[in-house]
Design brief:
The complex is a heterodimer of chains A (270) and B (181). Chain A is an alpha+beta fold and 270 residues long. Chain A has ten helices and four strands. In chain A, strands 1-2-3-4 form a four-stranded antiparallel beta sheet, sandwiched between helices. Chain A is elongated and about 95 Å long. In chain B, α3 packs across α4, α6 packs across α9 and α8 crosses α9. The chains are: A alpha+beta (270), B mainly alpha (181).
């Protein structure tokens, strides 16, 4: 059966035809067309009869109450702006605090050996800070989100909040860190940074493809493998396969993250 | 003012921190989101969870909405993907039996459900076909969206939607036939 024939039958079933004679003639021309018409008609009538479902008053109230409770339980209840400006402000403010701290400690520590030790410690702190602030940039940590909130108030407040949250970035991530991590990685996928699909010469390619299929993503192609830091997809670092639908353009694709240890979808990014 | 203009204004207010504006967006779209989720997931409690998650995601990603599609389309797309995620997780946990009817826990509102004309045999048949066909027929035939609208929500070409709707109906009819035999 050709596509145009099926479409004609469907149009008849949906009542979209002004003149039904061509469709009726087609249905009468062969049993397979009659069968198709009956199947389409039965299913369409049933679905129309089913109709849209309605929320009850109780469900509606619970929905609103629970949603705002969830939002308030998070670090804030403001929609993410996702601006790089705020993220860079967060990073810059964090660096400013660390450098300022280093200057103060160098004054307190004085010269000689003890001063060298102090600088060594500061150097270690700076390295750690750089790691943390980089994580804040890549993963778009709560520091960024909180800096966004703070930016609405004042620069001073923002610096304080940022200093706190950059420090927090080194501990267990918040829900918003996790969301920001996935959003950031999804953008990298859409930008084509990882290419259009997982490289064929990658030895793990078949295994990853099988895992993606096992996750219920049969019509998806893996495009990358990521190691998500601890706290993102479990308590430990997690190896994630990143997949996009076969029939979507990369730039607009829904990006799905699959934990390769369990072959389960851990996140979907629109 | 058009719906699109209203949505744009509401969204701008949401980004300025106006929670009432987001509440209004929810009220404009929650019934349809819930309906789509219920028909895809086949369980009111799970559908309510997915509806809540959909709006949480929409709130958190409000700034990422680019206005290329209607706000509703964007929200329904989040809803469908959220439902898919929940279904995959359920599939790995256990096979949930379909309830005889998708009754609400709130029995005082049964009239509302009755008015929707619930048909257990169709619900069971719907649950038996794969989610990609199910979502296509739900959006097209139950929610009454046009094929281009469904294509936008599902993120696939219109031709793919047509194919999924027609094949979905055929599979549904087969399932209905199997039930009556």
């Amino acid at each position: 059966m050709r596509d145009d024939q099926i479409e004609l039958i469907a149009a008849l079933v949906e009542g979209r035809l002004g003149d039904e004679s061509e469709a009726r003639a087609l249905i009468d021309s062969a049993p397979e067309f009659r069968e198709e018409y009956e199947a389409q008609k039965t299913a369409y009538a049933g679905l129309r009869e089913l109709g849209p479902a309605l929320l009850t008053d109780g469900e509606r109230s619970a929905l609103h109450r629970d949603l705002w409770t969830s939002l308030r339980q998070g670090t804030d209840a403001s929609p993410g702006r996702g601006s790089w400006y705020y993220r860079w402000v967060a990073v810059a403010a964090g660096m400013f605090v660390v450098v300022g701290l280093a200057a103060v400690l160098s004054q307190v520590g004085g010269g000689g050996d003890s001063g060298d030790e102090t600088f060594a410690e500061i150097g270690a702190d700076l390295d750690e800070s750089a790691t943390t602030t980089a994580a804040a940039t890549d993963g778009a940590s709560a520091g960024a989100d909180r800096a966004e909130e703070s930016a609405d108030d004042s620069v001073d407040t923002m610096s304080d909040a940022t200093a706190t949250t950059v420090a927090e970035g080194s501990s267990a991530p918040h829900d918003e860190d996790v969301a920001a991590y996935y959003a950031g990685e999804a953008e990298r996928v859409r930008s084509g940074e990882f290419g259009d699909r997982l490289q064929a010469h990658d030895e793990s390619d078949p295994e990853v493809a099988a895992c993606v299929a096992e996750a219920g993503l049969e019509r998806h192609r893996p495009v990358a493998i990521l190691i998500a830091p601890a706290g993102i997809a479990g308590e430990d670092d997690a190896r994630l396969a990143v997949a996009v639908p076969d029939d979507s353009e990369l730039a607009a694709a829904t990006v799905v993250f699959v934990d390769t240890s369990t072959c389960e979808v851990v996140h979907t990014d629109e | 003012m058009t719906t699109a203009a209203q949505d744009a204004e509401l969204l701008a207010r949401v980004l300025e921190g106006d929670h009432d504006a987001f509440d209004q967006i929810m009220r404009n779209h929650e019934d349809r989101v819930f309906s789509v989720c219920l028909r895809i997931m086949g369980n009111r409690e799970h559908a309510l969870d997915a509806t809540q998650e959909t709006f949480l995601t929409a709130f958190r990603k409000a700034s990422q909405f680019k206005g290329n599609a209607a706000l509703g389309t964007w929200i329904y797309r989040i809803a469908v993907n959220t439902c898919y995620d929940h279904l995959r997780k359920q599939k790995r946990r256990r096979a949930d039996p379909m309830p005889d009817r998708l009754d609400p826990a709130d029995h005082s509102a049964e009239d509302a459900v009755e008015s929707a004309g619930l048909r257990p045999e169709i619900e069971r048949a719907l649950a038996a076909i794969s989610p990609e066909f199910r979502s296509a027929v739900v959006l097209s035939d139950i929610e009454g969206m046009s094929l281009p609208e469904v294509a936008e929500v599902l993120g696939v070409p219109v031709g793919t939607v047509k194919s999924r709707v027609f094949r979905g109906r055929r599979l549904l009819a087969t399932e209905l036939g199997n039930q009556t035999q």
